[in-house]
Amino acid sequence: MSKPRKIALVGNPNAGKSALFNALTGARQKIANYPGVTVERKSGRLVLPSGEPVEMTDLPGSYSLDPTSPDEAVTAKVIRGEFVGESAPDVLVVVLDASNLEQHLVFAQEIIALGKPTVVALNMVDLAERDGLVIDPMALEQALGIKVVPTVAVRRRGLTELAEAVAAAEMRHPGPGLTDLTMTERRVAAHAMADAAILSESKRHRLHARLDRVLLHPWMGPIILFAFLFVMFQAVFAWATPFADALEAGVALLTDGVKGIVPPSLARDLLTEGVLAGVGSVVVFLPQIVILFFFILVMEASGYMARAAFLMDRMMAGVGLSGRSFIPLLSSFACAIPGIMATRSITDPKDRLTTILIAPLMTCSARLPVYAVIIAAFIPQRSVGGGIGLQGLVLFALYVAGIVGAMAVALVLRRSVTKGAASGFIMELPKYQLPAAKDLLIGLWQRAWIFLRRAGTIIFMVTVVLWLLLNFPRAGRGENQVDVSIAGRIASGLSVVVEPIGFNRDMALALIPAMAAREVAVSSLATTYAVAATDDENAQAMALGDQLKAKWTLPMALAFLAWFVFAPQCMSTIAVTRRETNGWKWPLFMMGYLFGLAYIAAGATYWIAVEAGL
Ligand SMILES: Nc1nc2c(ncn2[C@@H]2O[C@H](COP(=O)(O)OP(=O)(O)OP(=O)(O)O)[C@@H](O)[C@H]2O)c(=O)[nH]1
Ligand SMILES: [Mg+2]
Q1: If you average pLDDT over residues 21-35, what whole number do you get?
Q2: CATH no. for residue 54?
Q3: 558: CA distance to ligand 1 center in Å?
Q4: What is the mean pLDDT of residues 232-260?
Q5: Which terms in the Gene Ontology molecular function aspect does this entry carry (predicted)?
Q6: Residues with beta carbon inside 6 Å of ligand 1?
């Protein structure tokens, strides 16, 4: 039997190729709202209405067959049949976003000009219709000289017709006048074709255009973005407090419960001091994490995220980065690991390396518990006027410090280690959409689950190991358990190094396990203070925040915060950096410079705060 024919889906990023691919083949993959998600090749089987089985490939989104990024290079090579170990596709399906027709027709012409059997999937006609765009597929067919099938990938509309067109595509050939055009000529032609195919445009379309004029305005745009982020950080504290308090009370109740049932023993201590105090101290930050991601998901789903990237482009260019770095850096606010992996869509190797190196400076969500516990303990819960909470303001400042730090580092790197010019940036702005409640809920649930799973696995394990190291060898009469323990001794050694920047032994003790996961800084402190307090009934009953207040000064707390703005990332980030840069050189460089920055920032913060009499 001969091999099945190969069908490839091509088109601009965000045209809905993956959605069509999923709908046609039943395969599953992540679908996000901004360009550049499909990095790898996906293929699956399907049977055409004619009964012919074919193999379908989902190619990365591209703007042109002249590749400007590794993803685009893959697409261009596969289409031309130059990809090693990969036969050329027999039929191409060009996927167009009907509501972005003019833009998408530019690349479509280039594909069609290849002369291969090709059909057009005019996708997202639902969104076009909703926007009041009435498109005439026949006019497009005439202009392009090939079959055009209207589809709605997410509603499975037009799939059968598309499959039929694919089966028939072998016989067709491109019309005259499409080959050998320059890019500019293609743009002009695209404009004319879109004009001819679009029959009417509605109020909604004009409304979106007007929204863009405000949100993308050179100076109003950034102010609105800044204001939005400001509100987001205010909300993280303001909304979370009742839930966090309830969770904290729950953990306290559990601890009392265990103490009531289990007789005093090391095992009971492990449960209360290690598991409940340690892991519990992290879990109480679940509401904050959920609120933070609520805002991020709304930004993504509404189409505002891409606008934010667009606004940031100029600032990025100022420090020698391209706007392409924005999405990876933004992902790093969740976690640096997906952020670093997302840099694969950056064309220029030095541009990409710079982005990888600064990604850990974006405040990942694992740092939120650390910030939150210190802020709640040391920054008074009061308003600085106009209903603006001081705590939210400090949190906002910490995030801004990370961003400013990253931009400053990029500026320096681009003039030294990763010298080079900034490259251009093309990005499509998706349509505005009201986020669907169901998608939001699923997204939030996934985030919450990731957080809880971390608490139940890595944070749990590290905390238990730390508890063991804190409890052995056992203290004799009159000795303090933490002082004589293995962990205590290691931390005492380390505190020689961190004393100059204002850290005490307990803080030093939290730094090492925090390399496994940042949240562990919180659980380590909680466990350490719980172990230290075993003999003191009063101290035992104190919440972590009160313990911190009793044992740290304000300058120490601020120095600790400054440390975590820059502190070298977790082990997994180092590992992924090693993988993405093919060696140890850059991860070591990254660790080195981050350690240096963290040390200087914490030290400067401490001494300035002390001098200021805080
Ligand atoms: N309303 C509507 N949304 C769609 C349609 N097709 C795709 N989408 C959505 O559009 C977004 C982008 O779709 P993808 O399938 O990821 O786009 P892609 O072409 O694979 O993008 P890249 O992989 O980045 O090149 C997703 O959020 C889809 O759910 C459609 O016909 N109608
Ligand atoms: Mg895709």
Answers
A1: 61
A2: 3.40.50.300
A3: 45
A4: 88
A5: ferrous iron transmembrane transporter activity; GTP binding
A6: 11, 13-19, 31, 33, 35-38, 60-61, 123-124, 126-127, 152-154
